């Protein structure tokens, strides 16, 4: 079963996620190339590699009561920036839906990050919740829109079969504390680098000057390859702090 809306325990479930460093250490200890092949095969076998990606399960800060983490913006527009930050769910004027899901031991998919449900709406609450520069952008740049991915038909038998098999395999491998799934849209997708400033995650497109070896992989996508049965690509990186410690960006604070 997959949940798509915030629930009464959204904050508690988000705050119990591993920190970035905990997630990185868990991946080092528990995940091998064979693990990626096994999980990646499921994405390809069920033909959902253009719908879902594999995500490193972690948070960058804590939520306060009544908040959700909402992503806005797009890497494919002129602004080329995605900002994810906490907003009060009771201030929302339009429905939201999950974009990242963790898997529980009883195979339930629980959303921990969200996006607006309608791609054509820029709602008034944004003007009071997002910083002044972003407010100006919403007024001056009509191409910037709430983070939008193609609507997912969760009633699809193929998606249902994938979700059932993926959760079973993830729990079988004891990796539900390491990996999650996230919605992706390969039609307008650009690989990005994410950094955290206080309680705001900012993702910008990956450029030729960036050095992936200095980043932490956070989202992976899979496809059939000409040389390998399954090819894995990294879709999103977390950026270390300038002094290399990374901790200042990802400290757990309220």
User: How many DSSP helices?
Assistant: 6
Largest sheet: 10 strands, mixed, barrel
Specify the overall morphology.
Answer: globular
Low-confidence stretches: 119-147, 241-254
- Regarding quaternary structure, what we see is single chain
Order of strands across the main sheet: 1-6-4-5-2-3-8-7-10-9
- The percent range for helix content is 10-25%
Got a strand count? 10
Radius of gyration over C-alpha positions, nearest whole angstrom: 17 Å
Mean residue pLDDT: 77
Distance between the termini: 31 Å
Question: Strand-residue fraction?
Answer: 25-35%
Overall SS class: alpha+beta
* Topology pattern, helix = H, strand = E: HHHEEEEEHHHEEEEE
- Indicate how many domains the architecture comprises: 1
Organism: Funneliformis geosporum
Protein name: 3326_t:CDS:1
Descriptors:
ten-stranded mixed beta barrel, globular, single chain, 6 helices, disordered C terminus, alpha+beta, 254 residues
């Amino acid at each position: 079963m997959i949940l798509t809306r915030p629930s009464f325990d959204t904050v508690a479930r988000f705050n119990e996620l591993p920190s970035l460093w905990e997630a990185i250490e868990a991946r080092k200890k528990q995940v091998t190339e064979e693990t990626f092949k096994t999980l990646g095969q499921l994405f390809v076998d069920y033909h959902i590699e253009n719908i879902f990606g594999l995500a490193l399960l972690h948070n960058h800060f804590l939520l306060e009561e009544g908040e959700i983490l909402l992503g806005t913006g797009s890497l494919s527009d002129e602004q080329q920036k995605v900002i994810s930050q906490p907003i009060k769910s009771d201030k929302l004027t339009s429905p939201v839906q999950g974009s990242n899901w963790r898997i529980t031991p009883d195979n339930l998919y629980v959303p921990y990050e969200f996006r607006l449900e309608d791609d054509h709406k820029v709602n008034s609450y944004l003007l009071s919740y997002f910083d002044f520069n972003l407010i100006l952008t919403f007024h001056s740049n009509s191409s910037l829109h709430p983070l939008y991915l193609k609507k997912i038909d969760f009633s699809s038998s193929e998606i249902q079969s994938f979700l059932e098999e993926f959760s079973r395999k993830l729990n079988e491998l004891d990796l539900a504390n390491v990996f999650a799934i996230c919605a992706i849209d390969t039609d307008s997708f650009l690989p990005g680098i994410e950094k955290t400033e206080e309680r705001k995650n900012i993702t910008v497109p990956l450029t030729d000057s960036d050095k992936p070896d200095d980043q932490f992989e956070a989202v992976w996508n899979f496809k059939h390859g000409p040389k390998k049965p399954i090819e894995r690509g990294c879709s999103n990186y977390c950026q270390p702090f300038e002094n290399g410690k990374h901790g200042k960006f990802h400290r757990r604070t309220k």
